[in-house]
Amino acid sequence: MYKIIYLKKNIILYLFCFIVMSQSIVYAEEAPVKLIFGDDLNYPPFSYIDANGQPAGYNVELAKAISEALGYDYEIRLDEWHKVRSMLESGEIDIITGMFYTDDRAELYDFTNTHSVLSGDIFTLSGVQIDSLESLSGARIAVQKGDVVEEYLQSTGYAFELISVPTVKEALDLLIEGEVKYAGLLKIPGLYVASELGYETVKAQNLGFIAHNYAMAVKEGNEEMRLAIDGGLRLIKATGEYEVIHTKWLGVYEAKGIVYFYERYKWVILGIIGLFGLLIINNIFMRILVNRKTKAVNQLNQTLIQSENKSRAIINALPDIVFTINGEGEFIDVKNSDAHEVYYPEDHLVGKKINVLLSDKYSSQCMRAIKLALGSGSVQTLEYEIQHHGKPFYYEMRLVKSRGDEVVAIARNITADKERRDYVEYLSYHDQLTGLYNRRFFVEELKRLDVERNYPLCLIMADVNGLKLINDSFGHTVGDELLIKVADVLKEACREDEIISRIGGDEFVILVPNMPSAHAEVLIDRVKAISKTVNVNSIDISVSFGWAVKEKSSQSIDEIFNEAEDLMYSKKLVEGPTMRGKTIDKIIETIYAKNDIEKKHAENVARLCKAFAKSLDLPNHEIEEIKTIALLHDIGKIAIKDEILNKAGPLTQSEREDIQKHSEIGYRILSSVNDLAEEAEVVLHHHERYDGKGYPMGLAGEAIPFRSRLLAIVDSYDAMTNERPYKRKMTIEEAKAEIKAQSGKQFDPRLADWFLTKIIPNT
């Protein structure tokens, strides 16, 4: 009688476990005695050959643990990555222990559940700080050949020069030896190898790009093998062995806290606590029964307890939601480890049809999958969407026939994975700064549209005038704002079917099917009209355009592109200088507006320089040039922070270095204007010293341009005889004494003597 009662109490649990594991059990009976795993021999800490010549690493220990949990023998073969993939294709190995999931690879392999998520990063030496990948455009970056990081960096559209090497170690060696300043690697392998090699000066920048799921992979179509490996992985997670392996190899690099582990494994923890509670109750119950029943009954009970414990471990390791559904689409049972995942109470679903949970679109897809699963006995997979509080959630459901007219459907929340994939796909075709399409998208779209039905195919090139000047003068933040506003103007002027891409730092292109040349000019006029209403830091937006139209298939699209580009550059030659001149006027206005002392200083220096030049009987045009240089000599201070320029106390070493940069910044600003190239050279050197101890180049004596030597004396004299926030002003006599003392050191002795005897007495 006792046996019947006990079996009734547990029969539901055993039948459920039998249904879920039926496919894996069938496979296990037919599987080979030994599982053969393969992986990369140069991928620490995931897989590598240790000092004893044996396979080692996180992936290796994971493969061993899964094999032992399933009761299989195993063999692990490590080789070069491309050879390992060939071995899987040829059937020499059964499983690759670690491979990153991509849509392209999913067409060649079947992936297990994810056992790690890895991201890429940029490694540098200490002291280097990087804000974004875009800031590295044009840089030389060492990468591991064939790695997902190399693939990603190639796809960004930035002009990286990628130096491919076989291993992570060789990439870090190039960084240590100074051959490159950057290494693009997966973060955990990079940190592990740097630690093993003692490279203490190597650090990761924590950019965290291309987060990828890392899983085991089998040959496409080997569904039974994949299900078996998934079952083993769930078993070692349920028993805690997975966490031990993960913490040993990867935990130190992930640096996750106790809250993270609780949130990640809270249902496993609660399941284990519940299991212990059940075991305690069961043990008490069993002790009572042992006193009443025979030795044979006691042995049977022990066997049942062991079976129950194993079944509960399997259930705890299952995906989030398990449905049992009949052939009519009616829910028979619902099991899940996290009640909020269902969004409907269990009693609301049981006995109802699937259209209670799913929309008509997904209900019909699910019914087709149920029919196929019941008819063929094979696993069916579909994805569906649920709207909850106005937000979409995405699930993957796998269905397999269990018994009679029923299927077991296992559903897992894949919202985060889908959003991550969608975001990565968005980044691969969009410019991060402006939100427009990027060069990669433009190239692909140009190929797609280059067909006869789209002729005339119009290509309009646009180049922002003065971007470098604005970056140098007002900083890259203002330059970025300029690019964003240009993008907004283009979007406002264009229709939705007119494709706008940013293909370079300051270059945009508009691609329009079925647009003749006359219409292109109308579109450009519309862009220019809108741009006149927009400015950045009170500077008007200026964009030069060029266009060309492909009207027949015999024309080369490359020639059309070059024709549009040539026209754009010819326009830029005319429009660019005007824009730069206006920008320089705005820079001077900005400096004077925020610092009246600088305005007064520039006017005084201009007046004294003109008098100095006249006294030397220089030609009138040169006198005017010297006056102009004097007005512009501190234009580079536009890029210096106000708090440094206006600081009342002594400057720190860092602040002094920032101030000294103003002559170089001024040179870059002025040299961007063709008519001011010579003046730019004078501004660059007006803080050189006659004894060679000045900046920025340490020129000495006659090597310093004549007008720079003249300007240096007048600049210093006016600075000494006028109030500054950081010092009191000198008397004229004190200033004369200082100039005389510095004659032959800071100043040209002949010009200093002339200034003291001819200019100061007349001021």
Automatic annotation (TrEMBL):
<dbReference type="Pfam" id="PF00990">
    <property type="entry name" value="GGDEF"/>
</dbReference>
<dbReference type="InterPro" id="IPR037522">
    <property type="entry name" value="HD_GYP_dom"/>
</dbReference>
<dbReference type="InterPro" id="IPR001638">
    <property type="entry name" value="Solute-binding_3/MltF_N"/>
</dbReference>
<dbReference type="InterPro" id="IPR029787">
    <property type="entry name" value="Nucleotide_cyclase"/>
</dbReference>
<dbReference type="InterPro" id="IPR003607">
    <property type="entry name" value="HD/PDEase_dom"/>
</dbReference>
<protein>
    <submittedName>
        <fullName>Diguanylate cyclase (GGDEF)-like protein/PAS domain S-box-containing protein</fullName>
    </submittedName>
</protein>
<dbReference type="InterPro" id="IPR000160">
    <property type="entry name" value="GGDEF_dom"/>
</dbReference>
<feature type="domain" description="GGDEF">
    <location>
        <begin position="455"/>
        <end position="590"/>
    </location>
</feature>
<keyword id="KW-1133">Transmembrane helix</keyword>
<keyword id="KW-0472">Membrane</keyword>
<feature type="transmembrane region" description="Helical">
    <location>
        <begin position="267"/>
        <end position="285"/>
    </location>
</feature>
<dbReference type="InterPro" id="IPR043128">
    <property type="entry name" value="Rev_trsase/Diguanyl_cyclase"/>
</dbReference>
<dbReference type="Pfam" id="PF13487">
    <property type="entry name" value="HD_5"/>
</dbReference>
<feature type="domain" description="HD-GYP">
    <location>
        <begin position="576"/>
        <end position="763"/>
    </location>
</feature>
<dbReference type="InterPro" id="IPR000014">
    <property type="entry name" value="PAS"/>
</dbReference>
<dbReference type="InterPro" id="IPR035965">
    <property type="entry name" value="PAS-like_dom_sf"/>
</dbReference>
<keyword id="KW-0812">Transmembrane</keyword>
<dbReference type="Pfam" id="PF00497">
    <property type="entry name" value="SBP_bac_3"/>
</dbReference>
